[in-house]
User: Fold these one by one.
Assistant:
Number 1:
Amino acid sequence: MTVHQEARVRRRARLRGSTAGRALAACMVGVVFSFPLAIMAVGSLRKPGLPPPGGLELLPDVLWSGNYETAAGLIPLGQQLLNSVLVVSTAVPVTVLVASWAGFAIAMARPAVRRLLIGIALVVLSMPASAMWVPRKVMLEQLGLTDHALVVALPAVMGTTPFYVLLFAFAYHRIPRSLYEVAAVEQASVFRIWRSVAFPLARPTMFAVAALAFAAYWGNFIDPLILLTTEDDWPLALGLRALSALEPTLHPLYMAAAVMATAPAALAFLAAQRALAPRRDLET
Amino acid sequence: MGIAIHGAHKAYRSRRKQPIAALTEVDLHVARGELMVVVGPSGSGKSTLLRATAGLEALDAGRIEIGGRDVTTAAPGDRDISLVFQDYALFPHLTVAENIAFGQRARGVPKTQITTDVAQAATMLGLTAALARYPRELSGGERQRVALARAMIRRPKAFLLDEPLASLDPDLRLRTRAEIRELQRRLGVSMLYVTHDQTEALALGDRIAVVRAGRIEQVGTPDELYSRPSTAFIARFIGTLPMNLLPPEALGRENGPVTGIRPERTHLAHAGHGHLTGRIAAVEPSGEETVLHVVCPDTTRILVRVPSSDGVPRPGSETGITWSNADEHHFASAEGPRTA
Amino acid sequence: MNEQHCQPTRPTPHRRWDRARTPSLRHRPTALALPWLAATALLVGIPLIGSAWLAFTDYYGFGAPSFTGLDNWHRLATDETFWHSLANSAKIAAIAIPLRTALAIGCALLLHRRSSMNSAARTAVFLPSIIPDAAWALLWLWLLNPLYGPLPLTLEAFGLPSPGWFTDPAAAQGGLALVASLQMGEGFLVALAARRLLPGSLHEAAAMEGAGRIFTFRRITLPLMAPILTLLALRDVVLLLHTTFIPALLITAGEPHSATLVAPLYVYRRAFLYGELGYASTLSITLLITAAAVAAAQLIVLHRTRLLELL
């Protein structure tokens, strides 16, 4: 064998070995991160009121599904679930639209304007959410907006966070300039260029932002806590809290409610994952 | 009047350094229905000129007219032009038909009209079978044809092409080149065609403009540029083989102009006879002709092209080189203007 | 030969960008940023100004705010609890941010190749972020429970010491950092995108030259991913103030010995338990300035290393 061939054989062997190692590591990572969800699911099947287990208990001896019914009776589950769905189905599309428009403007603007817009984004990005609690509550109370479940979706009109705007800006920036230029010569308006060229070609980013926004609004706890006073307005994320004060032996009830709060989101996310599998050639 | 550029100036300003002049005092007129090739080395400003004509970049000074209309401050979409890029710039997420129809849809043309127009453009460029396919399924040549179809569908006053053949394989290049020429003739449209390949320029252009360092060195027909280059730079740049440029010392003179002689105008002679004598360093056969690299004792290198039927001499052997004095060109310096 | 023209034009030196002469896209692209800018002005700008105003007042939610000058600020200077809470936030951030970033990058590098195993693992990594904040926090309340919690039980089963998660201040801070770190779906997605953007040819060339895994990571992968990662770290500093809030509220309630009293929790208590909206605004503004200062410091580093130019 020539030196070259030997090197190639050695490299292939190394890659194969490392591929097996990588697969194992990936498997372990997957297991570790699935652990919390698994615990939640398992915990929800434990019969409440039992004494603590002697040692590590992977699965309870008796699987009890009654927790779900009980939990559903303790909080206005249906109404709160509806609120969560309402908030998410409004906030996610609005976030995606506003953030992608702003991102497109940043990508297309001339250098001076682009720097200014990115600067604004970075400044807002560096503001902690806690700085907004008091003034927003005061402002919304003055405007009489604090008793609608949708109030929580309000940040969507500014794209929820400038981070998403920057993500879009980056994705649009990576599209070859010539595509934009041709569209301009073909007399497409700026909006049309966004709609027909930029947005379709940055689909992975769109799904990423949608997924992130979905997770953010579905799980959002603090904004409803501060802004909404009526239990019936609460999204599920907040309704869970009512069950959190239960003593440890009654935790399975809480777990059941947590599963009910997480399952719709998880399922929606998994479904979207399948739909979003990006096509290689369009990926930016 | 097709395209008229008057006194174009453009400089790039970087924050710390001196401004870089991209275009200086550029005047160019493209007649109606004429194919004008702008050729020059990389960085010469030819792309900048095209982009400024298209409206994608702003000029610092100067005027641009297209179809008799002043478009200097008009947006790219309002200049009545079409662009064809080196990377085809096809929308990957749209079918061929949708790509071609893009501009029509942007302008709000009714759907039935669009279908007719697209079919017509497709027929003209042989794309009817490919209308439902996506760009990624097409070959390079087909993609460029889609770009051409998209460009021609609304019959603009001018076509601007930026190195359209550079991404194609050599065999496709030849074919697509002919298709572009044919299309231009059929449509009778003014074309501003930018390339760095002088062979393309000579083959395609009704007239050629040679650009160097932001200035136009010469504008003329291919024949004019070949037989009467106005600078030594053009003499070396234009032509399958660069013109040999010999300083006066190489010909045994103390001073005088730089002498230019095309390799194809040289002949071999016996060693010691003719204008120069040298050793054959390399022999490059290419079919009907053979190119010889000859090195003279004073390290002057000269290219000679002879018909292969004359017999190919052995590398390493000594030979004389001769030519007719009428075939000589004279220049003030190695890059300078013509003196005779 | 150059053609003659009637009026020779001379170049005007260093002319500033002239709006009238510059062609542009039809309608200006910046118009699309208007919704974002307007909404930001309304939802961030105005509250910010309001907060700055309230910081100099006493306001309890009813009636009108009464201007008190620098009183709040004097109080702030001697408010040990607040500075203690800020220190807590810093300590937890010092653990959590490197942990989160390392996890995000590590998982992205491990799982970026296309395969079904990787696809499943990627979903698993992102799923904790889907779990609602309250559920996640209370899940950990269960997980770390000394009697029932699987984590202490597992540690004991392996004969490892289980720190008093809720009784030992250091362990509580560590636990909080852990809780905040495992929900790193956002960072993970971004690191994944950044890794995918790197051209494969670079790594192939390195492998061909016999470069080891660590060398490739240090000299090729990391530098190329640096701009996006720095942006992530910047975001994390600010985010962490938020993500530690809910676990601190629900799991530890700031205990033990106020070890997990993080700054946002203190602000929350002042604002919504004690109703001191004026003083809470003072605290908020201070937090804001601190966060902004840290972010600015990071940006200066970014700028110096010229990484921002990639944007």
Number 2:
Amino acid sequence: MDRMRKIKRQLSLTLRGGNSGDKSLSETISSQDTGAHSDSEAMPVGGSGGLRGSVRGSGGSFSMHSLLQSYSSALRRPRSLGRSLSSYLNHTTRLEIVHEDVKMGSDGESDQASATSSDEVHSPVRVRLRNNPGRKISTEDINKRLSLPADIRLPDGYLEKFSLNSPLFDKPLSRRLRRVSLSEIGFGKLETYVKLDKLGEGTYATVYKGRSKLTDNLVALKEIRLEHEEGAPCTAIREVSLLKDLKHANIVTLHDIIHTQKSLTLVFEYLDKDLKQYLDDCGNSIHMHNVKLFLFQLLRGLNYCHRRKVLHRDLKPQNLLINDRGELKLADFGLARAKSIPTKTYSNEVVTLWYRPPDILLGSTDYSTQIDMWGVGCIFYEMSTGRPLFPGSTVEEELHFIFKLLGTPTEETWPGITSNEEFISYNYPRYRADCLHNHTPRLDNDGVELLSKLLQFEGKKRIAAEEAMRHPYFHCLGERLLTLPDTTSIFALQEIQLEKEPGMRTNSLSESVNSISQRQSLLF
Amino acid sequence: MSSPSPSSTLSDSGFEDELLCSPVRCASDSQVCDYEDSETCFIIQRLNQQQFLALNCLSRQPQITAEARSKLVSWLIAVRRQLSLSFESCCLAVNIMDRFLITTSVAADCFQLLGVTSLLIATKQVEVYSPRITQLLSLCCNSFSREQLCNLECLILLRLNFRLAAPTLAFFLDYFTSRFTGHQTGEFISAQNAHLHKEPSSAENKWRWLACKVCELSLADYTFNKYMPSVIAQCALKLAKDLLKTQSVQNSEDNTGASKMLCCEEEAPLTCENQLLFQQCMEDLKLLVSLNQEAVQDTR
């Protein structure tokens, strides 16, 4: 009984937390934020009462479990978990470990974690130490065991501590053991990272350039404020839940997640600039070979997502990061989502306006992976010419630009278009399709053909990412690109080299420009 | 009504191979394209569900019982109707809640907060819009504060390591019904006519409704915690078919529609181990339905 009271108090303390600062009541929601909340008011008391009534009825349903329970006299009370909120026993290994008594909050967490680590390393309860006199544990062993990056530098003394805790090597690694080990090394802690420069600030988050003390590598720290009145932003939740399962050479890597009282910090690998900055630095004239390499990498990363039925839904130059080597990576999965079937109602307020497909502009919420391919086409054009393709400022103007170039759709070119009320209401003039060749003088025939296949009115007619990777436009890059492992960069092949940009500004000037400019790709 | 022939081939082939192959592009036939798309989704989801199974989630809870869980889940089902949320949100919320219960002891007086917080997280993951926190708190008669809910939200996300892409009962239910009937629907309960290729028959609607009712009962019942969502969905559909078959014998006027539906192609043969699990799940569902007769009466 006393133990239960302690558990209750612990959970209450956890939920109550420390004192929060003043909470901002204002809420800015961009039109493209799928996290926008419904405008419906809070439920009236009467309605709530009604719901309670119906709930009481539902509660009356007969439980199979309770029926089975009444037949089983041998059933005993469930065993208690002890005092800890966060203890978790691994049933498979039957390994019992000292219980954590963890409070949320960086100070409390740090102290308790330290105490816990000390207990575990020096005097684990009921853990039998085994003598392995001939065994040496190296950094390589630990990295492999915990799936750490190869270049990590473990804290002083960790190797020695680790040797005492040999169960890590003798038994299957439970999720909790891994978490404790990672915490000892420094993951999940703000002290592990040093903030360097502020890169930008948005509605929900601020992004800093930083350095990891563990690897000496640069990182991007996306600090998400938790004072929002509706809790954690859905953009952050989706980004993490989707991104942590995506491991590809052309997708930005999420290294770590840190929780403090007021913020949730996502630690990403750092890349020097985004594609828009790259274009600016080149004076809007990229070497055509580099255009090809960037486009291929974009398609490669996107194909990986689409094979997993993940839609990015916000492709634009600002969300494509590029490093010195020329590696391009998809970033900002805040608007991404997993595609489920049958088609559910998705928002049509996704994708930045200039890169939004016409079917979405006309209100379609029935889309799949093809939603991203229109954006690829717009980006392909922009890399080739240095100008955005359809820079509209309103939905109506955006559609106007599209139809002016590709022709106003008819029942022949877009079956069903004359039934679209929105299209009818706009009453566009009848434009004939222009020739794409005239607008992309630097592209060869294969490039223009690929661009045309990307810029199709109907989603189902747009070329898929995988098919696009095999298009003749890329044949000069060789076939080995198509069989590389997912986590291998295309630049691992000797024949793949980024061409020098004649118009590229010097590094020092470029660096100072970068530090000033907004890194939009990392903001919400 | 017939399913495309590749389905049997897919069932026979190794899943790992299929996962790495993209569906063949069919520019001319959108029906086949939709089919290929749904098959890929199904294969991915079927492979993923094992790692999201919250087996025996109450085994170490000192205060939360199976009965308490049943009441809370039944309440969440009513809440999701009240707030017009998708069944997928409801299923995902229950999965999030169950997986959290594996990691953390929860006091009985905080259990309802765990339920609504899990629902909030689920809606942020899968809905276009999420309910307001004030709405959710008022449904709990304001027994909890916004601060408590927000703190618990973060705790849940961190404990589950942000792993929220659980394949749900709703997904498999939609998948199997769509495959059997050849219809694409936007939402299981309230079919959206805009997405229908043709209007489903009243028999099909009754079948879907009844199968969903059975799934709701299984969601709230702790006994079904051990079954994979794909197994429960298939068993629920088969049971609904059997129940309607019984009804159709009693009601000759509806016989034509029901018998037409009963010709649906069955799932590919299961392995011996799966066969046993399938039969056990079917028996459990039959018992569950017999205990809750009024819940599955057609009130529409």
